[in-house]
Amino acid sequence: MIAEQEASLVIGFDVTRTQALLRAQPEFTAALGRLLERFPAGRFSEKSAITVPVDEFLLGLEALAAWPAPETVVWDATFQSVVGEMLDDAETAERQLHAGDQFDVAASEVDGLLGPNWCGPLTDFQRRDIARLISLGHSANFSVPGAGKTRVALAVFAAMRERGKVERLFVVGPKAAYEAWLHEAKVCFKKPLDVKIVTNRLPGSADLLLVNYERLNRSLVGFAKWLQDSPGMMILDEAHRMKLGAAGVYGTACMALGPLSRVRMILSGTPAPNGAKDLENLLSFVWPGRGRRVVRQAVGGGDLGYASGVLRPLYTRTTKHELGLPPVITRVCKVEMPPLHREIYDAMVGQFTARAERNRNDFESLGRAVLRLLMAATSPALLVEGATKYEPLSFRIPPLEVQEGEPLSALLRDLSRYEVPPKYQETLAIVAANAARGRKTLVWASFVRSIKSLEVLLEDFSPAVVHGGTVDRSDQLRIFREDPSCAVLISNPATLGEGVSLHQVCHDAVYVDRDFQAGRFLQSLDRIHRLGLARDTETRVTILESQGSIDEIVALRLKEKLEFMGQILDDPSVQKLGDPEDEGALAGGMDTADIQAIIGRVSAARS
After folding, report:
1. Which of 270, 324, 436, 606 is most buried by its number of CB atoms within 10 A?
2. C-alpha span between 422 and 139 (Å, rounded)
3. Per-residue confidence at 401, pLDDT binned at 50, 70, 90?
4. Do 208 and 280 lie in a common domain?
5. pLDDT tens-place string over residues 467-487
């Protein structure tokens, strides 16, 4: 055996134990530099040492064959064991791709695998999914929101623990999902799991450790040690949050920790909201080095039907149809901008067009301009600076008459005194009509100032309000669920689009506006349309759009993204959501393609 000091190249973990470290003798520094060229995300950490993300190291492992002195390469035993496991996992995934829908575990065997402490009732489709996920080992559950993915994941953990494969569970997810994990960990086990939520300190012991994506990178070394101290299972809940993979902060942290866990699982009802690249990055967490290559090969020809068939053995998915829910009635309500609103909005479009021509490559600048157009489609008054950042608009009812000769800037400043935005009027009418029938309404609005303005407008209905700055979020949800006088909850999909169930008390939703994030839209729809809904429940969703505005471009792009997602997951119900019906009125997440669609549509309309 060659001693490390005599080795031309030593391969192991870096000091954080989250990346591969390749250290060479000084005379092999040039060879190390050539090796680094095969790993784009790698870098020199010292003169004769490089660090490489583990996923990328596995993907380019064959590059080591070009090392000039292969007989003097030494591997750290722990790192070699991890790499060996990853390669074995890749072979298992390869075999499963060829095996198709043939799995080692049958749904009928599931109950006997969960151990004597399990007591959570399961549906037939949940048993089917659990059987597949156990068979896969490392796995992905892309079931629709509301299908009970949390319970399914805990059942897989229970089975893996019974087998002695793992001892504890590490879950990364949004804070909104904590409620579900805490509840399920209590009701699914006779002796509830010991659940700890990571705040300032990393708990020493727990059956289930919960941490949000934002905190993950702050304590990466500590989490790496926690995973290595005892065999663990790592789950990414709402895994689309790390869809950027190594190009994003969340993805980088997840990809670093993944190889340190004995079992890896991702949960997402919206795994590919913007295209195949999202799916590629998610599966790269599950099968480091292999996941990326599999997706590239599957969708390389652009045939989504073929891609779906190829990838299907690597994940499980329960569709909306399988939940047995009554259909959701989704309608678009188009509203006309009043003359003053239209005049101001068109002036802003003209400014946007000029800016777009000057800054076609400045994605960040264009993105901010698009957000302003999304606000203006509801009311340009939202853009005017108030006394505080989120000061609600003050409406004059009845509105003032517009005086001839008023400058546009003055009209913009006082717009809320001249008119109540049609979208707000429509929302008020819907909430009032529902309240009269004893029905509660969930109102979605993307911008906090819009939420605060709606809170004032809807004050007669005792609104509950939840946004990113809400301190008493749990209290607000409790009021909405339990207080008969509270007829409306106002929130934004960024805050409440995931992890919360409202279907027990609410069956009506209104979207004051939408942005370009198809996954977030799909998630938010399922807050009131979930497993457990009575068969005779009528669920109604109304989408408000200002005619001749950016709202129409958002609708087109969301339709395209939802259709793509439905095709790659072989789920017609997702495609259908992209094309809601139109009805008469009662009274953000952009990518490059979104920006191009806006510029093209706006330019064509003005030419």
Report:
1. 270
2. 47
3. very low
4. yes
5. 988 888 889 999 999 999 999
